[in-house]
Amino acid sequence: MDIRFQRAVDKYAGVPLCALFTAWDWCIRKVGLRRKPAAEPKRILVILLSEMGSLVLAEPMFQRIKARYPGAELHVMLFAKNREVLDLLNVVPKQQVITLDDSNLQDFASDLWEALQKMRTLRFDVVIDCELFARVSSLIAYMSGAPVLVGFEPHTQEGLYRGGYLTNPVMYNPYRHLSHQLLTMVDAIDATSHPAGKTVPTDEMITPPTLVFNDGEVAAEANKLETDFPTIVGKPLVLIYPSGGILPIRAWPLENYYRVADHFLQQGYAVGVIGLKGDKAFGQAVLNHCRHPMCVDLTGYTRSVRHLLALFHRAALLITNDGGPGQFAAMTPIPTIILFGPETPRLYRSWAKNAYFFHQPLACSPCLTAYNHRMSPCDGDNQCLKQITPEQVLEKSHELLGLPPTAQPVSFTLESR
Questions:
Q1: Which of 75, 62, 48 is nearest to 134 (CA)?
Q2: pLDDT of residue 286
C-alpha cells in the first residue's frame, strides 16, 4: 500500500477506532471482565511493524525479554517484507513469527483476520507494542485480549494518540535512543507505577548482533560478484546508497554522490550503487554520470538482505543515507558513513563501533518525529542534508580507509562515538 494511503487510513479510521476501544475498555473494567495478569507470563508478543532497520535496533530488547523471562514463549508480529531481517537476527523460532502483508488492503485484511484468530488461540499474557507512528498496532494489541499491554504513553502528545487502554504505558522520550526506550518496554512489564519506567536508565553502550555466515559463503558471493562484474576484480570497493527509500526527504543530493563516486574512481577504487529494484533510476544516474568501467549498478542485484551483508564483507566502505543499509551494516565489519538530516542519530544511530554520522542540526531538524507521524513539513529543500558537503564526507572516508587527507581539509559537522 502507498504510504500516503496508509497514513490516511491510520488517521481517519484509526483515531475513532482507538477512541471506541478506549470506551469499551472502560466499560469492561468497570464490570470486572478484563482478564487478570498471570503471575509469570507464559507467552509474550512483540509487535514491531516499522522499517527493517528498526529490527536491528530492537535486538537488545528481544535478548532482555529472553533473559528476564526464560520460561516465556516469545512471538513477534511484523510486516512480511521485514521477515528476512528478523530471521537473520535469530531471536525467535520461525514458527513463532506472525506476518502481515501490507502490499494491498485486501491481503492485509486477510492476514490480519488470521493473525487475530491465532492471537486469541495462543492467549498471550503480555503484548509489547513498539510502534510510534501507527495506530493499527495499538488496535491489534488490544484485540489480542492480553491482560498486560505495554506501549508508548500518549498523554498530551497529540501525534502519539493511539488509544487509552494500555495497562503499562511508557512515556515516549524524544531524548533517548530508540534501543534504550525499547529496553524500558521490558522493564515496564512488571512495573506498578504510572507511567512505567521510573528508574535511572544506564544508557549502556549496546553491542550490535553479528551475522555468522556459513563456511565459504562470503568468499563465494565475492567471487560471483567479480564474475558478474569483471571490471572490479582485485579492486577495493566503495558502496553507496543514494536512495531515500519510502521517505525521499532523507536523501543526500544525488550530485553529491556523483562527486564522491568520481573521487574514488580517480583513486583507483571501484564504486557500487546499492538499492532495491525500485532504486534502479539512482544506479543508472550514477553510471551515466561517471561513465567509468569500475562504476557498477548493484541496485536490484542482491537476492536478499543476507546476500547484501555478504557483499558488505567484500567492500571497504559504505556511504549511505539514513535507512536500512546503515543499520544492516552494523552486523558486519564494514566501516560506514551515515547521513542524517530529517531524523537524528541521537535516536536512530547504528551501534557499530566503526559507524560515523553526519548531521547538520538545523533549527528545523529533525522534522520526522513521533509527533507528526513522520510527515515532514519540508518543502523539499532539505538543507539539513545539502549543507553536508562531499568534501566533508570524503575527508572522513579517507580517514576510515587509511588514505592521506584530501587536498583541502575541512571542519566536520559530525556525530560519532
A1: 48
A2: 97
